Amino acid sequence: MPLERYLTINLTYYHVANEVPEISPDVAVVIDVLRATTTISWALKNGADSIQVFADLDLLKKSAIKWNANEKLMLGERGGKKIEGFDLGNSPLSVTKKVVKGKRLFMSTTNGTKSLQKVQNAKHLFAMGLPNRRAVAEKIISLKSENVLILGSGWEGSYSLEDSLAAGALASYLIANYDYEVNILNDELQAALALWEFWKNDILKCLKTATHGKRLTSLGDYEEDFKCCSKLDCLEIVPAQVERGVIRAS
Ligand code: MLT
User: Fold this and answer.
1) Strands across the sheet with 72-78, in order?
2) What gap in Å lies between CA 31 and CA 109, rounded to an integer?
3) Measured CA distances, 91 to 42, 122, 159, 247 (Å)
4) Collapsing DSSP states into helix, strand and coil, what is residue 32?
5) To test the ligand 1 pocket, which listed residue (15, 34, 113, 226) has its Cβ within 8 A of the most ligand atoms?
6) Distance 177 CA to ligand 1 centre (A)
7) % pLDDT > 90, the chain
8) C-alpha 99: how far from its chain's center?
């Protein structure tokens, strides 16, 4: 087989977890721009030891209780609001160095952690927001894996504009920077690429136009969260699954 064809990257995008077929992809990239995967990226950048993700709150509490209070934090939201009794909500601004350094973060969110759990069987599983898009793309290029599944998080099973924007941004970077062929295997990703071309010069406006953006705005002043989640390629960090449900900086 000629070298070029062997190094082709095939990209597929699914909007939400319940659309993903029962497969174990080489590489899976989970996206939750507002806000789970952005928060994961900043928490690891700020020195958190690891993040353990849960779709189920009871399972999270059963796991967290085994850890000493000074070694752990519980963070997450439901409906955009901090979960009662948790240390933090899901804002990327809350995971500062002072708060998270050296700690294991037990995390559960409405959608993002569901998507991370859905593709736990992947050989390589990465969490991506817009701040670490380039870092994740370069990791994919370095792996030269043939099949890459991109998974959004949406909102309770429905489509999300901001996650598709980020999927388009990732595909666009790979097409522009990978020396070999990049195949777009489904229309979901073709549409995401077109979305990126349309909104790439006004990402902040896209996030605020999105239904989840409007949901957050209805809950309070999230201006700084929007700014943080819309910043492109400012974080050289690749959150990677190291064991089932546990994510560390790679
Ligand atoms: C989610 O997982 O649904 C989001 O990250 C929710 C949020 O943080 O607003």
Assistant:
1) 81-82, 72-78, 104-108, 50-53, 246-249, 239-243, 124-128, 27-31, 147-151, 9-14, 182-184
2) 13
3) 10, 27, 21, 18
4) coil
5) 34
6) 30
7) 92
8) 21
Strands 27-31 and 81-82: unpaired
Tokens at 165, concatenated: 């924007």
The tokens describing 69, both together, are 């209070």
* Type of residue at 159: Y
Amino acid at 216: L
101: which 2 tokens? Answer: 């350094």
User: How far is 96 from 118, CA to CA, in rounded Å?
Assistant: 28
Asked if residues 47 and 219 have their Cβ atoms less than 8 Å apart, the reply is: no
Amino acid making up residue 36: A
Residue 75 near residue 106, CB atoms below 8 Å: yes
pTM of the model: 0.96
Q: How far is the CA of 76 from the centre of ligand 1 (A)?
A: 8
* Atom 8 in ligand 1: residue holding the nearest Cα: 35
Give the residue from 131, 101, 104 showing the smallest Cα distance to 38: 131
Question: Can you tell me whether residue 67 is helix, strand or coil?
Answer: coil
Q: For 38-86, write each residue's pLDDT tens digit.
A: 999 999 999 999 999 999 999 999 999 999 999 999 999 999 999 999 9
Q: Tell me the C-alpha distance between 22 and 18, whole Å.
A: 10
* Residues in the ligand 1 pocket, defined by CB under 6 Å: 32, 34-36, 77, 80, 90, 109-112, 153, 216
